[in-house]
Structure formats: structure tokens, C-alpha cells
Amino acid sequence: MAPQPDDQPMSAPDSQDRHEAISRLVKRFGDRVTTNDGIRNQHSNSLTWHAAEPPDVVVFAQDTGEVAEVVAIAAKYRMPIIPFGAGTSLEGHVNAPWGGISLDLSGMDAILCVNPGDLDCTVEAGVTRGALNSHLRDTGLFFSVDPGTQEATIGGMAATRASGTTAVRYGTMRDNVISLQAVMADGTVIDTASRAGKSAAGYDLTRLLVGSEGTLGIITQATVRLHGRPEAVIAAVAGFQSLDQACQVTMQAIAMGLGLARIELLDPLTLRAVNAHAGLSLPEIPTLFLEFHGTGNAVLEQSAAFEELARSEGAVSFESAGDEQDRRRLWKARHDGLWAIREAWPGRTVLVTDVCVPVSRLAECIAETQADIAAAGLTAPIVGHVGDGNFHALPLHDPANEAERQKILAFSDRLAERAIRMEGTCTGEHGVGQGKIGSLRKEMGAAVDVMASIKSALDPLGILNPEKIFRLS
Amino acid sequence: MAPQPDDQPMSAPDSQDRHEAISRLVKRFGDRVTTNDGIRNQHSNSLTWHAAEPPDVVVFAQDTGEVAEVVAIAAKYRMPIIPFGAGTSLEGHVNAPWGGISLDLSGMDAILCVNPGDLDCTVEAGVTRGALNSHLRDTGLFFSVDPGTQEATIGGMAATRASGTTAVRYGTMRDNVISLQAVMADGTVIDTASRAGKSAAGYDLTRLLVGSEGTLGIITQATVRLHGRPEAVIAAVAGFQSLDQACQVTMQAIAMGLGLARIELLDPLTLRAVNAHAGLSLPEIPTLFLEFHGTGNAVLEQSAAFEELARSEGAVSFESAGDEQDRRRLWKARHDGLWAIREAWPGRTVLVTDVCVPVSRLAECIAETQADIAAAGLTAPIVGHVGDGNFHALPLHDPANEAERQKILAFSDRLAERAIRMEGTCTGEHGVGQGKIGSLRKEMGAAVDVMASIKSALDPLGILNPEKIFRLS
Predict the structure, then answer these.
(1) Which residues between 360 and 389 in chain A have a beta carbon less than 8 angstroms from any beta carbon of chain B?
(2) pTM exceeds 0.90, yes or no
(3) What ipTM goes with this model?
């Protein structure tokens, strides 16, 4: 399958085109267009190891019609267009390797409607998950997907197929998006599905756009699933003698269908960082952080069943709490994990890896990864959404030291290959972006060509977030 | 977006090409190729109003490699290729309007592996849901999707995004397929995903193929999600004074998150047919058939909460049972519904409609549909997976009477338009096939062009199940 028509090579625009495109944008959008260095840099800012590659210009859009107008200008001048929400992605998704337009959707922050009877709501792409859940506070409903920051936008989360701590119970963005509105590369505005709870009406364009990382269309609205707040919640923390023990308990709990709402692993290095960060004195041992959601009886049964399982496998501690304040106290360490790690090793950068394996291979994959970290002489805390078989090893390095950088990149490649060998994926939730292009090919083989054919069919000029997921140039 | 390259018009093959293609197939596959009239007719047989359009030839494939060989021959001679599983689809999906090759995958019926630790299994496309669940009997696990026949194949169910009675709790094929192996139009064999429980590795080709109705690739293997058998099951039957009452109770139960595993509506006409068919004497009133799955305590709580809700809304009867034999007795009427209707009106054919609306619009949509049936003077039983907002009105007609046929087709169009107006879909679970092409355009608008662009990019010769979902000719 031909990746693109021969007469329309995908490449960076020339300087004349850039200049004219920016003039057109300024003429149309006035002071919502900027070439200010600070703002351009902020729009390519990265939370991880990817170096910033700023766009030529940032445009702040206010509605779907404006997005379509920007796309038309981008198409005319072959300017790359990079959708921007909160900039919390981890794989360089908002970088502009060919320059172009960063299209900031954060101003599209209207919650358009909430339908309690259908357990859904429709929002503009720039609504953050924090704002949405605040808005829902009095409805008894909540939006479940929790990638670890309140600032992430619903549009960005859909575009990267985000998940996080609650996916083991409530699913990822794949499961929680009902329909999307998107502007396609030719300016067409589509709705990908009706609001019906299920449908067999043609190709699943919703799921095609979820996880497409801005390369197929620009998501402007989303209708997402809501869940009833559980009648009761119990939080628990269980400490183990080894990572293997914690993994074995996780695997058994999943196979038994214990109904966990969250099950998160922190390794001793992470706990040490958290203790320093938050002034805590938690035991620095492999620890599972859990939540159980359900009726009062159900959560007591689940928590008791989990405690029995954990103790039978050698857990050294188990503490649980139902009261909200106590639950917050128990879970504080987990919520602060990534920030604590950054703080504990000042001046060093983390490469956030993201493999996910079938949960039955979790213990094996983590054990091999631990051995690899030791053999390579790396410092790499491990945290994981282990109920999904998803974990992040976070090798620390000095970004200015090229030898160190190459060493951790090689580690990341080995980790991805290990997960692929164990029937898993190089990325459970962060996406491909710029960082996993090579690993995606190793994992998916010829399926990447099918993806590229779709990309070329829907974006023949290659203007939508080029050089992400694959390189077509 | 151009639907296809101009130099490769999609059209039926000429007779010379047909002849040569069949010769090539016979040479390669011997007695697994047939042009026998009875077998060709059986491969285009329809359970509903679509007239049979037989293929030129039927090929029985035994593995993925053979499927790829058939695709290569089909491509060489521009022969349509129509995947065939059990032939239980309802929208003419297995018809061959341009002739071509019916590719029978029912012999690909190996269960390749079951992974209890990961709650998944991998099967060949021709495995039936009945065979899979028999195989799983001793594992404590089951495959949940239940479209109403044990004979449906997993490949066919994936291709049509099937759902049925359990979707309200366990989801549809969209939710229960982890990965697919497929042969694409150029003969490439792809795996759409790893076996990891979640992934952000590029475009979601799994979900793109689920529901693509054989138009984008031929599904040869599927890895599907399994669920633990519930510790306890309670079945229940609740009778109401009106369809509206039954709908109101359904809508409230869903909004309250009562955790129903099944909630099915039968109208009085259907119950009359069932009584005649099975020698029962059920009250011929609007009736909900329910199942609750969970722990012993949970199902008792759920059933009691539902009974309280139903009685407070005016239910005239409520009966429940936990014992398996009693549960079967209670549910018998539901399982026999469609067959009972066929038997009750001998010589008449059903058009099986399939709208699905947001559940909050269910009562309104059914009320308007009842009024429409009455005004049009039709006989049309109504059954529904009402927890999903999905129901089937089944207008009966004499297929030889063209005036009657046009009348029920007009009714079907009005019903689809009504559902679309209520933010729903023309097809909740049966797919577009040949029957909903016009309605799909009304529902999805420009999004159909996006689908057509994908189709043309992945199948430029238009050989994969042409004239289904849309017409590109």
C-alpha cells in the first residue's frame, strides 16, 4: 500500500509559506495568534526526555468553526498543525519538528450538556478532567479516567487513548468515549457516532480517532461515559517482601476477579522519594495501593478477600480505611509519586517508559526489568498500574550527558522488546508520539503500513501532527 | 476525499474473469471449491427480508495462509470475496450482488489457546460461540456476547460488531475483542494488537475491523475477553400494564446503576406467539426478563431493589428464581422469541429493524413507534435489549406482495429516522449490510465519506464484500 500520493510529498513548509500562513492567521484571529518565544516554547514543553521543538506560531481557537478555518489555512500553505490541550503528554506529541501551527484548544472549555439518565456528557475538547469532575460533583456521577493530572484535557486524553489508575475497573479512553466531533484534514467536520450506548453503524471512527494522536483529525468535542459514584469506597495499602510477591498477588487477584477499582505498585526507590517529598515515614518496601468500589457489603468482602490473599502470599503489612480522610492519607504516596521522583534527583531527567504485558506475564517482565536495571547500573524507580499489566520504569539521567542518554534509550528499547516478546506492547497508555516510532514497528509489523495507508488517505498533505506515530517523509 | 482511484473502477467481474478465477481456485483447492447451486444458495441464505444473491463459487478455507491465497486470486481477477461464517447475519451481509467468491471459514474452528490468568482466549474465526462456551465449561470462565444463536461464529460476530442480551453488563464485540488476525486486500496478514489488556500503540485497528463487515479485511483469528462465571445468578420476570411502564422502569434501573446483567422487553404480541410456540400460558402483557450476576448477597440486593422499583411504578407481577432449572423456565419465552414469531405467522417474513437510542429516550421512541405501527395498520411485535436502548420492531409481511413490502420498508425508514432524531442509531447491533445503506448516510453524514476513504485506501480494487455499508460503484 502506497504511503502517500507521489505528487504530494510530506515535508516541512518553506519560509515563504510559513510567512504567508502566519500573516493570514494574524489577519483572521488577531491577538489570538502569537509568535512569542515563551509561548511557542511552552507549547512544545515536555515533561520527559524529549527536547522541545517549538512551532512557528500558536493560535488559540474558540470553536469548531475556527478550528476548521485554521485547518484550511494550514492546508493551503502545507503548514503542520499540532493540536494542543494541556501539554501533559509524555512522548513529544506537542512537539513541532517541522514547525507549523500549535493549535491551542484550551479555551474550548464549555461543558455542553450532562445527561444523567444516559450516564454521559458532552464537552468541548479543552475541558480538563478536573473541571469536569468539579462540575459533576452534585450529580452523583463522575468521569473515571485518571491519567495522573487534573489538568489533562478530555480532547488530549482521547487523542492519546489515556488511561491511568482506574482503567482496571472502568476502562481507558477507548471504553469511555461514546462519540467525538472532529475536524478532518480537508476541513470537513464529522461526528463519529450517535449518542446511543452501542451501535453497529459502519466503521468505528470513534475508536479510530481515540489514540490517533492528532494525526487523523482534530478532536473538538467529546461525548464521554460517566459512572455512578460508588456507594462505598475502601482504600488499602499492602506491603511485601519483594516486587515478585506483590506481582504474584496482583496476578491472582485479577484472575480471581476480585473487582479492584485501583491497584498500583510502588517500588522501594519510589517510596524513598515520596517519604522525602512529603515528610512521610512509610516502610520503603514494595507496596500495593488499592481501592475497592461498590456497595457497603461488597467493598468489605473484596477488601477482606484481598487481605487474605495478600497475607497468604507473605504480605508483611495490610492497612485499610473507608473514611475519606484516612483514604487520602493512605493514598497520598501514590498520588505524589512522579513529582517526588523528580524532586528526589534534582537536575536529572526521567525517561518515562510505559510497557504493558498480559497480566499473567507481569511478574516475569518486572523481574527481568529489575535485573536489566541492575546490570546496566541504572537508577530507575518502578511504578505501575499493575492490574492492567502496565508499569513505568523511570530511568534517571543527566540530559546533557550524551553517553548517559544513549544508555537509557537502549534500556528503553530493550524493555519494549521484552514486553513485545511477552505478547505485550511498548506503550500501554502514553502513546507512540516521537519516542516509540521504532518500537511500534517491532511490535506491529505490517499493521503499521495499514495505519500509514489510513493516514495518507485521510491526510494526503500530511499536515496533521506530522512525524508522530510514524515517519512518512 | 476521492472514494477510489479513477483507473480502478469498482464493478462486477466479467464472465471470462469469473471463469478463470474459478479454474484457478479448483486447481488449487480441489473439492473444497464448489459451484453447486444448493451450496451457493445456502451461502447467500438470509434469515430476513433480503432476497438471496448467490456467489459464483464457494471455497472452504482451512487456515490463514489459504485465505491469503484466495485473496490473491480474487485480486487478480477482480472477483468479489465475501467471508462466510454461519450465515446468521440479518442485513444481507453474505449476499453476493456482483457474484464472486463466498469464502467459508467455518472449517477454521480451532480453539488455539485459553489463558485463564489473563481472562482471554485465541480462536480461529470459524469457532462458534456455542463451541467456545462448551470448551470453557470447566474453567469457570465464559465468553459473554450472546447475539441469540449458539451457531454464530466469533469471526462473524466480530465482523458485524454483534452484541445481544448481555451487552448491558459485559459489553459488545467492540469491548470483548482484544486483537484480530486478518488478511487484508493486498494479501498482507496483520495482527491488530498485542494481547496486553490495554494499549496506546498506534491506531486501533482492532476496533476498525470490528464492525467492518468484511469490507476492509478478512478476519481469520480473534483473541477475545473472557469473564469469570458469576458466583450467583438470579433470573426474574416482571409484568407491566403498558410498554411505557416497562420502559420507565428500565430507564430508572439503568440511571440508578442497578447492575443488571440482562434486561429484555417482550411485548404482548411476542408473548402470544411464544405461548403458542412453547405451549405456555404466560400473561400476554408487556414483560421484562432480567438476570442479575454477582455474589450471593449482591444478586439478592439487586433483585430486591429492582422489584421495589418495578412495583412502585405499577408492575402487576414479579417472579424471581436462583435455581438453574427455574431460571431456564422463566427465561424460556425470551430465548424462543424470534422463532415463535416466525411460526405464529406462517408464510410471512419479518423485517428485523434494529434501532438504538440513548436509554433516556427509550420510552418516547417505543411510544412513537407503537403509534406508527397502529397508524400504518401493521402487525409488528416488539422485542428489545432495552437496557442498551436497543429494540427490534418486527413488521410481518408477504414478501411476494410488493405493496406490503414497500409499506414495511417505509416503516423501517421512518423508524431509523426517528431514532436518529432522538440522538440514536439506525442499527444497534445488526450492522449496515445491504439494508441500512441509506439510513447510514442520514445518520452519519460526511463521516460516511471518511469511511469510504478508508475503504478505498485499504481495498483499492473493491474486492472485499462490495456493496455493503456503502455503494462505491
Answers:
(1) 360, 388-389
(2) yes
(3) 0.96
